[in-house]
Design brief:
Layout lengths: L1 E5 L19 E5 L5 E4 L3 E9 L2 E7 L9 H20 L5 E2 L2 E2 L6
Antiparallel strand pairs: 1-2, 3-4, 4-5, 6-7
Length: 106
């Protein structure tokens, strides 16, 4: 298995990756079909097949660890931000029955 960290100097791939700071770059690995990697001792990622520009991977992880495609995670985060913004803009104290509450005068 070959590997190198992006954003690091040449020769870093020869060092023990456990000595590196977390979040300091991306570990880049080369894998062939039926080869895999293990993350934290309990997450297994395996290359199941390669066809043209698509790589089929399999992921085995404990149920308490969510595994999502990146685009789904980004969509969920965007929808959450939109819901929070709507709730902030249309909070119950500013609306009556879904319509804006009339301004009260003292």
């Amino acid at each position: 298995m070959t590997g190198e960290r992006l954003g690091r100097g040449a020769g870093d791939s020869q060092e023990n990756p456990r000595k590196k700071e977390r979040g300091g770059g991306m570990l880049v690995l080369t894998r062939k079909t039926d080869q895999g990697i293990v993350i934290a001792g309990n997450i297994y990622v395996r290359v199941l097949g390669i066809e043209r520009d698509r790589v089929k991977i399999g992921i085995s992880a404990p149920l308490e660890i969510p595994v999502l495609r990146q685009e789904l995670l980004e969509r969920e985060q965007q929808e959450l931000l939109e819901r929070e913004q709507k709730a902030k803009d249309g909070s119950p104290q500013n609306q009556v029955n879904g319509t804006p509450k009339p301004e009260s005068t003292p």
